[in-house]
Specification:
30-stranded antiparallel β-sheet; 7 helices
Length: 502
């Protein structure tokens, strides 16, 4: 997952490293070999010198598959490095460049695919100093098409895929210093289009998905310690590996359709923009996703009626440790869903009498805490050993509900609290010491509306009210407002407002 983006950028000539002050084609070729070797690839190819040009007619890459066993081979074909006479080198690709990929696991069937790169107006120039090399690049149009795919030697008919980038510009810079290779990259493009399709008459499965965005912006950085490669992530992380990637899509839309067992479904979506972030270092893994002003609609596929919804914002983030350690390390999780509304035709089916308020719903959850990671997250052997179920990879020590807020159909639930987790064997829910405070506003009014709609029978609503009276406290002077305090004890006990439940 971490190596593939680097090779994708390399195919476009977008990676960089140290070279000599007055660059030659041989300098660039040698640096590519060093860079790709650091990324865990074996480089093949026989360069041929022709005047001021170095041609690699059979450039290839291969890597081992430590988990599945076997290898992946990529044949990228002809690449030329042209010395321009001013200390810079031009990277030249043919306008149509087929690339062959093959995955050959020790067990299971081999998979092959032909991927073709097309470009219009592609210009890539390498320049630099003895300790720093810079690539600048631009293209009117870049397109990657998925061609023939085989599984176990048999063609997979009906498989198609395409990615297209217009008005591409970018810059990348690399340097080896302070005992590490440093890479930075920036890319802007737009418009962007993509599609994937699969049609298998034998299984009766058909899928088509396509979309477009007005723009794409990417920036990333990599610090790779010397003497380490990405095929041993735990060791590289301990030595100081750092990766950061951020990708932002402008306004866009997508469509899908599928058929399985004779049942068809389809849908559309759009958003004003989407952002994705990822960071990884020995300090932890960070993931983030945010989408603004989004809408979606789906129908078919067993749904009783078409479903449509919109949201002003949908965002989430996760931070967690990746390196085994004796000391507790922080983690955090957040979810932010704001301005969620249902389409009017959905409300017409669910609530034709308009008993429920149509106010937008929202959900905010912020969790944090500390715990010990008992194995390296990217140590495949250690993680595989956990599948027996006799131990856990993570031992939480403290869990904090920094905030909880749910606003739905006129009701409002909020909460906060903290728990200290007692040590356990990792296979059962451990005991905890702490408390969580909850507050519910408008709960009884919501029950009345559900009864009026016929969704909730009166006797069940009465049962809910009786339970609420037992385990909550009315707030004086605030109508239809209840609070509860849930306390956890080290002995495994649970009490609600002082009443012991366990």
């Amino acid at each position: 997952m971490l190596r593939f983006p680097a090779v994708s950028l390399f195919v476009l000539g977008l990676s960089a490293g140290a070279a000599s002050a007055d660059l030659s084609a041989d300098d660039v070729w040698q640096d590519w070999q060093a860079l790709l070797g650091d990324l865990g690839y074996t480089v093949s190819g026989a360069p041929e010198r022709a005047g001021n040009r170095l041609v690699i007619p059979d450039f290839g890459l291969s890597q081992s598959l430590p988990d599945a066993g076997g290898r992946v081979d990529m044949r990228l074909g002809r690449i030329a490095l042209h010395e321009r006479g001013d200390g810079t080198v031009e990277v030249i690709y043919p306008e149509t460049m087929p690339m062959a990929l093959a995955m050959m696991p020790k067990e299971g069937e081999a998979v092959t695919a032909i991927v073709t790169l097309h470009h219009e107006g592609l210009a890539i120039t390498a320049s630099g100093t003895p300790d720093r090399l810079v690539y600048s690049y631009a293209a009117d149009d870049l397109r990657v098409d998925l061609g023939e795919v085989t599984i176990g030697g048999a063609p997979m008919n009906g498989a198609q895929g395409m990615l297209r980038l217009g008005a591409v510009t970018g810059r990348s810079e690399g340097v080896v210093e302070d005992g590490a290779r440093h890479l930075t990259q920036e890319i802007s493009a737009g418009p962007v289009g993509y599609s994937v399709a699969l049609d298998d008459p034998e299984s009766g499965v058909a899928l088509a998905y396509e979309g477009a965005a007005e723009s794409l912006d990417y920036d990333g950085s990599l610090r790779l310690p010397e003497g380490h490669a990405l095929d041993d992530l735990p060791a590289a992380l301990r030595a100081g590996l750092r990766i950061a990637n951020r990708m932002t899509f402008g306004p866009g839309e997508s469509r899908f359709s599928s058929t399985e067992d004779g049942i068809a479904s389809r849908g559309t979506s759009r958003s004003a923009g989407t952002g994705i972030e990822m960071t990884i270092s020995d300090e932890g893994l960070g993931l983030g996703l945010r989408s603004e002003d989004m809408e979606a609609r789906m129908e078919g596929g067993g749904l009783p009626f078409p479903i449509g919804y919109a949201a002003e914002r949908a965002a989430g983030s996760l931070t967690m440790p990746v390196a085994k350690g004796d000391a507790a390390q922080p983690f955090a999780l957040s979810v932010d869903l704001a301005g969620l509304t249902l389409a009017e035709d959905v409300w017409a089916v669910l609530d034709p009498a308009a008993a429920l308020p149509r106010d937008p719903a929202s959900l905010t959850v912020d969790l944090s805490g500390t715990g010990k990671l008992l194995v390296d997250l990217f140590d495949e052997t250690a993680m595989a050993a956990l599948e027996s179920g006799d131990r856990s990879a993570f031992a939480p020590e403290r869990l904090v509900l920094d905030s909880l807020l749910l606003e739905l159909a006129g009701a409002r639930l909020s909460g906060a609290g903290a728990l200290d987790i007692e040590p356990g064997d990792g296979t059962e829910i451990p005991a905890a010491d702490g408390a969580v405070d909850l507050r519910l506003e408008g709960g009884n009014a919501l029950l009345d509306r559900l009864v009026a709609m016929g969704v909730l029978p009166k006797d069940q609503a009465m049962t809910v009210r009786m339970m609420a009276a037992m385990f909550s406290v009315p707030v004086a002077g605030e109508a239809d407002t209840l609070t509860s305090r849930v306390e956890f004890g080290k002995d495994g006990s649970i009490a609600v407002n002082g009443q012991r439940m366990r």
